[in-house]
Design brief:
elongated, about 325 residues, Rossmann fold, about 15% strand, about 35% helix, 12 strands, alpha/beta
Amino acid sequence: MKLLIAVHHRFDLWKVPPWFGDRLRQEFPQLNVVQLPNYDLLTEEIVDAEIAISWSLHGEQIAAAKKLRWIHSTAAAVHQMMTPELLASAIVVTNARDVHGPVVAEHAMALVFALAKRLPQAAKYQQQKHWAQRDLWEAQAHPREMAGATMTIVGLGGIGRPLAKLAKAVGMRVIAVRERPELGAESADAVYGFERIEPALAEADFVVLAAPVTPRTHHLMNAARLGQLKPSAYLINVSRGVLIDETALVAALQAGNFAGAALDVTSEEPLPQSSPLWTMENVFITPHIAGLTDRMWERHYEQFTENLRRYLEGRPLRCVVNKQKGY
C-alpha cells in the first residue's frame, strides 16, 4: 500500500518535515511511504498511491490516481481542492481541523483581548517613548472590559467551538451563526442560522469570522453586513480573507462606522504594500500566523496516525470532509 506525501509551500513551516515520513516508515513498515520535497514528481507518483497527504491536488491528478482512496489535507480549509474530478469520485477527504482549530481559537481570543485593551496602539506609543495613558483613554474607542461583552462567532466548527469556550470562560455572552443551528446549542448562549446573521451582527461587541469558504460565505461581510456593526464593535477574521469584501471594509473603516478590525488573513496574501489596510489606525494585522505553533507537526502526526490506524482496521475516519459542502 502506497502512501504519498506531497505538500509544498513557499513558507517552510507549512511543508511536511522529513521526520514525518521517516516515523511513518518505522511505525507502519507495511506501507510504502513516499515523501516528495516538491511537486515535480507528483503527477507520476500519485498514479499508484492509495493514500495521499496533500492540500493542492489538481483535477487531472485525481483522475489519474486510479488507486487513490483517501486524501488527508494538512490544512483545515479544503475549498481549493474541490475539483469536479474529486467531487465525482469515491475518494474520502479528511482535514486538519482538530489540529488547527484550537490553536486558531487561541489566536482569535488574543486578538479580541488586544483590541479590547488597545494593545496595538500602546505598542505604537512605546516605539515613540510616549506615556500615552491620556491618549489611549481619550481615543474614540476606549479600553473595555471583556466580561459582559457579546461575541458573535460566524462558524461553529473546529475554530468556533473552542473559541466559544474561551470567550465564555472570561464572562462573555456568545452568539453563534452556523449552517445548522440545531447542532450548536451546547456551545453558545444563542445559535442562529445564516438567515439571521444580521441581528447576530447587530448585537455583537466583537464579531469573529471562523467559517469555511463556500459560495455562501464568499464576501459574507459585504457593505450591507458591515453596516450592521455597532459603532463600538470590532471585526476579527481568522478564517480566510475572501469572507470579507475588502473594498467595503476599507470604506467602512475610513468612515469610522465601527471601532476597528483585526485581520490574520486577507484576500491576497501577502497583503500588497499598496493596501490601505497597512496604515489604518483602526486595523491590526497579523500575517496568517493563527495556526502557527512549535507543536504543529507533532499534533499533525498524532491526528494522522490515529486516522491511519482506523483506515487500516476498516474503521470510520475522523474529520471527514463533506465534499459537496466543501468543509
